[in-house]
């Protein structure tokens, strides 16, 4: 009861506001939710999840031509536009952790039931120690835990990461070089099938690194992100 009263008092003084339009009442208001650019399952690539790759996927073709690792199969909820970027920034960099479960619920809706039946657990892309110190929390772990609750699977941290530079400041080639050999999955040896979660797919280098690490211990993986560039 005291906790409820404290929350009610805080909500009266500092009402929850939409992170996109600042309207009072919800972290994402109904109007803004309707305006988001959702990835259309029937238009997206069935392999890598690119938003417009159902017939011919430029992403898959480009990766194949350059003989780079492909992060697939992958499903994402939103196209990474200004609104998606604002949501992610509010969650990761502005400390609005309450939006994590909402993002996770949106992600859960794009996952095929066959994926849930196939997987043994949910895991995630671990944040670097520097990122955890800067933000005060591991954004990917919290997102993955909420996502796992939505689909009814356990969430287990199976992947470890050695020190790496912040990916956001790097280009495509730099990202791939930064990630190469950074991930290890010593705790995944007892798992054969997992769903790996991250917030944003940019070039796919991080997710490919996660898949490679899991694959080295014979653990197959499918990927889910909140948004993709």
List keywords for this structure.
alpha/beta, two-stranded antiparallel ribbon, 10 helices, 6 strands, four-stranded parallel β-sheet, 229 residues
* Strands side by side in the biggest sheet: 1-6-5-2
Main sheet attributes: strand count, strand direction, barrel closure? 4 strands, parallel
The proportion of strand residues reads 5-15%
Helix content: 40-55%
Provide the low-confidence segments as ranges. Answer: 6-13
Count of separate DSSP helical elements: 10
E-strand count: 6
Shape: globular
The pLDDT mean sits at 86
Structural class: alpha/beta
- Along the chain, the helix and strand elements come as HHHEHHHEHHEHEEHE
CA radius of gyration is 18 Å
**First CA to last CA: what distance?**
44 Å
Explain this structure:
- The chain is an alpha/beta fold and 229 residues long.
- It has helices at residues 2-13, 30-35, 58-66, 82-92, 99-108, 113-118, 129-135, 139-151, 172-179, 205-215, and strands at 74-79, 121-124, 160-161, 183-184, 193-201, 220-228.
- A 4-stranded parallel β-sheet has the order 1-6-5-2, sandwiched between helices. A two-stranded antiparallel ribbon has the order 3-4.
- Helix 5 packs across helix 8.
- The protein is globular.
- The termini are far apart.
């Amino acid at each position: 009861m005291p906790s409820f009263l404290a929350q009610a008092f805080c909500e009266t003084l500092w009402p929850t506001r939409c992170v996109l339009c600042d309207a009072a009442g919800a972290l994402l208001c109904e109007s803004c939710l309707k305006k988001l650019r959702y990835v259309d399952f029937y238009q997206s690539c069935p392999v890598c999840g690119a938003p417009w790759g159902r017939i011919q996927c430029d992403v898959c073709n480009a990766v194949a031509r350059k003989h780079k690792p492909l992060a697939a199969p992958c499903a994402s909820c939103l196209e990474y536009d200004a609104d998606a970027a604002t949501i992610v920034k509010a969650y990761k960099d502005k400390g609005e952790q309450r939006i994590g479960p909402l993002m996770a619920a949106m992600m859960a809706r794009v996952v095929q039931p066959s994926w849930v039946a196939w997987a043994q657990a949910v895991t995630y892309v671990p944040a670097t120690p520097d990122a955890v110190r800067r933000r005060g929390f591991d954004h990917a772990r919290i997102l993955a835990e909420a996502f796992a609750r939505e689909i009814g699977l356990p969430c287990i941290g199976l992947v470890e990461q050695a020190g790496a530079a912040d990916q956001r400041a790097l280009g495509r080639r730099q990202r791939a070089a930064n990630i190469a050999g950074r991930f290890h999955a010593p705790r995944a040896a007892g798992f054969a099938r997992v769903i790996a979660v991250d917030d944003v797919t940019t070039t796919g280098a991080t997710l490919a690194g996660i898949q490679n690490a899991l694959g080295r211990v014979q653990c197959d993986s499918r990927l889910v992100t909140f948004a993709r560039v």
